[in-house]
Write a sequence for this structure.
């Protein structure tokens, strides 16, 4: 349980680090070779953590600690919760939860990609809001979406 919860929390912290860095880094700033190598290594580590470590820790938890085996049924003729004609084992429930973890991680991955690609627009919007808050006029727009 501790391994699964710890690995899941670590994955959320890694995702938060990406968001925090993305808000600080200017959108059009070019990358150096070292920054690109470090970013690629970090991205690989985040994907390895999200798609390998977190699901594996869940699988180990439900198979070893909870002892959900294919011969233990939640529903079916010998089910512990529901008696009926359709069999549903505890191991199947564990596999469904594993799939949900993968779907959550893919959704978070896509959301982080969308955030990273939209950060230039978000930074321009924040600059406009700051100018209005300071009591100044709204900055004029040169081309669409850019400050003049």
């Amino acid at each position: 349980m501790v391994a699964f919860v710890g690995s899941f929390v670590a994955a959320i912290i890694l995702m938060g680090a990406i968001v925090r860095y993305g808000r600080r880094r200017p959108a059009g700033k070019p990358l150096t070779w070292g920054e690109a190598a470090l970013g690629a290594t970090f991205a690989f580590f985040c994907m390895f953590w999200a798609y390998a470590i977190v699901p594996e820790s869940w699988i180990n938890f439900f198979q070893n600690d909870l002892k959900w085996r294919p011969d233990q049924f939640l529903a079916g003729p010998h089910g512990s919760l529901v008696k009926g004609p359709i069999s549903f084992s505890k191991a199947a429930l564990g596999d469904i939860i594993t799939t949900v973890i993968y779907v959550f991680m893919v959704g978070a991955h896509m959301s982080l990609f969308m955030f990273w690609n939209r950060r230039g627009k978000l930074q321009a919007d924040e600059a406009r809001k700051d100018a209005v808050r300071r009591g100044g006029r709204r900055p004029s727009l040169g081309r669409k979406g850019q400050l003049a």
Notes: Residues 2-24+37-121 form one domain. The first strand starts at residue 73 and ends at 76. The helical segments are 2-24, 33-65, 90-133. The mean pLDDT is 87.
